[in-house]
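Action item from last meeting closed. Structure (203 res):
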């Protein structure tokens, strides 16, 4: 018999008693905590205040969207051609499933839909740029990069758009305004235009 088994005597369990203070685990349900917090906010009027603040900020953002970052008033004329041709990433099919364009096909949208009106990008807070835009063709699309479109629509009785997030100006690589985008055959001509400096205005 192995020596370890000979030396090992009977094993007895001992109760050493309570060695320290024991506290019961109390954990409130998370949903209950959230509900209690919301109830307290509602009773204190904080919910109504937050809703009113959100409403005010939403209205302010609609009336005056965030200006497009990085655009300046044009100090030098620039003009370039923009090719709108895209390469299809998926097949384009008709209503009955017929293949119209296969994946990988290069398609120029101007082959099927022409740009019927110039796109004018400008700062609506700049009186010179606003006056320039309003002097252009009545059918031109007026696209703000800064300003209050709703206020201008009411005052000028014209439709104004806003380049939200600078998506269009970035797409056309516009760095300064005012700028014009117009169709020239199967290409788009993009121009940044220098306006005469108003008397008394800072250069």
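Sequence:
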């Amino acid at each position: 018999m192995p020596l370890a088994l000979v030396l090992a005597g009977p094993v007895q369990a001992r109760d050493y008693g309570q060695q320290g203070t024991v506290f019961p685990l109390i954990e409130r349900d998370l949903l209950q905590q959230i509900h209690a917090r919301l109830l307290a906010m509602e009773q204190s009027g904080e919910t109504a205040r937050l809703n009113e603040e959100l409403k005010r900020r939403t209205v302010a953002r609609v009336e005056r969207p965030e200006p497009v970052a990085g655009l300046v008033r044009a100090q030098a004329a620039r003009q370039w051609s923009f090719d709108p041709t895209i390469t299809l990433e998926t097949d384009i099919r008709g209503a009955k499933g017929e293949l119209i364009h296969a994946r990988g096909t290069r398609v120029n949208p101007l082959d099927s839909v022409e740009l019927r009106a110039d796109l004018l990008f400008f700062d609506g807070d700049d009186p010179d740029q606003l006056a320039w835009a309003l002097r252009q063709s009545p059918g031109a699309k007026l696209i703000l990069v800064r300003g209050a479109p709703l206020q201008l629509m009411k005052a000028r009785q014209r439709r104004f758009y806003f380049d939200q997030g600078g998506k269009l100006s970035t797409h056309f690589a516009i760095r300064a305004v005012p700028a014009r985008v117009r169709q020239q055959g199967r290409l788009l001509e993009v121009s940044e235009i220098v306006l005469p400096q108003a008397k008394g205005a800072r250069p």
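Note appended to the action item: The first helix runs from residue 3 to 7.
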